[in-house]
Amino acid sequence: MNNSEIESYSRLDFLSSKIRELENEKMEIKEKQDFVLKSEDICLFENGKYVDTVRMLYKDLLFLGVRTNNVEEVIRTCFQRIEGRELGRLPKSAFAKYMLHEARALVQIQVAQELLDGWDTDSRTLHSDGTSKHRR
Predict the structure, then answer these.
(1) If you ran DSSP here, which 8-state letter would residue 121 be given?
(2) Are residues 63 and 4 in the same domain?
(3) The pLDDT of residue 115
(4) What is the mean pLDDT of residues 89-102?
(5) 88 within 8 A of 42, measured Cβ to Cβ
(6) Whole-angstrom Cα distance, residue 38 to residue 120?
């Protein structure tokens, strides 16, 4: 055998081992995927309250303009289309309305704190007032 044949065999051995490694990795991923798809319980509610992920999802959808009456159905529809599974207990529209009121109260508190503590007395504005420099 010459050097080129030896290199070809060693390259072939390397590629064969790489293929076996990738096939094993593929099988592991497939097993994990099957486990996730077969697991029926997705934890949305624990210790008497909805998990933070659900709360943040509701706030994000509300801030994006989804009506409080539609948030639950939007989440269910998206999850059904993407995952092909049904979700269990989700908050109703009353929870979405509460989240909206909570967010508004937090914003009002933040604005009040900024007005009292954050600015000097000469420039208390939330938005630009159109002046260029030195409030002129």
Answers:
(1) T
(2) no
(3) 77
(4) 89
(5) yes
(6) 59
| Biggest CA pair distance of the chain | 89
Q: Is 129 inside a domain boundary?
A: no
Phi then psi for residue 68, to 5 deg, are -60, -30
Out of 28-32, 54-58, 108-112, 128-132, least confident range: 128-132
**What pLDDT, on a 0 to 100 scale, did the predictor assign at position 124?**
59
Taking the C-alpha atoms of 69, 97, 58 and 113 in order, what is their torsion angle to the nearest 10 degrees?
Answer: 150
CA 60 to chain centre: 9
| Domain extent at residue 61 | 42-117
69 shares its domain with 103 = yes
80 and 53, same structural domain? Answer: yes
Average pLDDT, the chain: 82
Looking at the structure of the chain, the number of domains it has is 2
Residue 95 in contact with residue 58, Cβ under 8 Å? yes
pTM (2 decimals)? 0.53
In a shared domain, residues 59 and 86: yes
Long-range contacts of 24-29 (CB under 8 A, 24+ apart): none
